[in-house]
# Entry
Amino acid sequence: MQYLKLCTFLLAVIVLLGCESGTKTTQSTAKAAKTYAAFIGTYSKKEGHVDGKGEGIYLYQLDSATGYLDKIGVQDGIVNPSFLTPSADGKYLYAVEEIGSDVDEAGRVVAYRLADDHLEKINQQPTFAFAPCHVSTDSKGRYVFVANYVGVIAVYPVAENGGLEVATFHEAFQGKGPHSRQDASHPHSVNLSPDEQYLYVPDLGTDNIYTYKINYDTPQKPLTKIGATKVHPTSGPRHFTFHPTLPKAYVVNELSCTVTLMDWDKSTGKLDTVQSISTLPADFKGNNNCSDIHITPNGQFLYAANRGHNSIVGYSIDPNTGALSLIDHAPTQGEVPRNFAISPDGRFLYAANQTSDNIVILSIGKDGKLKYRKEEKVFTPVCIQFQ
# Structure
């Protein structure tokens, strides 16, 4: 009898511990599975280089457990929102309207307030040139920066309600390069340094990366140009990123199909070229243009997008020098990957195929290799951003 009671007691303890263990596991899993807001910019009208069919800015939710995207809604009433960026506090979203003279006298940048399942427009400002193609903002929401492909950058102080005040700085770039695509200056992105003290502007048309000191104390003079870094002729520098922990910067070159690694001097803002590596397989003979570049949050891997080869190239990053070593090329399962994004937890990569109207979800392995998981249908996607 005592033996039976003991067995019954032990069984009850095991069951109880099992239930508690299961509860803890469930809670741990639930805690680990976060959701993130996702915003997708699109082309909404037919242009010379694209048959835009998007409805505007698509709002999605990312499930970090699966990596899948769940559609929430779409914000219409905006033309060609080709690039966008959310504010760091999650309250606002800024989007450019990549338009030409058939729509307005200049491009536009639009400020939105983020609601639960939609966007509320605050206001808009002109960008002083056509085809604005990139927008960024600092983490404290003081300025919004815009690059126009047709040779101009602009800076807007941010109002207390998140709207955009009249631009206090805009500058027209000059020059050209030896490539047929370099008939004029084409600033393609506006990128803040990790300490947000400098702004870097890759100019596809002149093979320069211009450096500006950001002046937060003098909103009427927000930028001071301090120099330029020349990349190899006919490179066509486009998008730009910094390593999360090393003093290193990387630029993807649209025309030469290369990624260039540079040392970054935090005290002066100066860049010095260290390495240049191809984004294409050695045996590829077709036409290709690079588009985008990103690094995983842990700083282990860098990826760049090929339009033509239609792939994402992956590199491992040396933890001491920042040097790149090729991992492999993963097909994007679509045409013309204009942009891509890495999930905030670094587990998934999302490639936006502009011409084939799809976003492909790829998982990132521990070795940096990409593996296809799922496809999301979106008309002419151009930009993906997570909050």
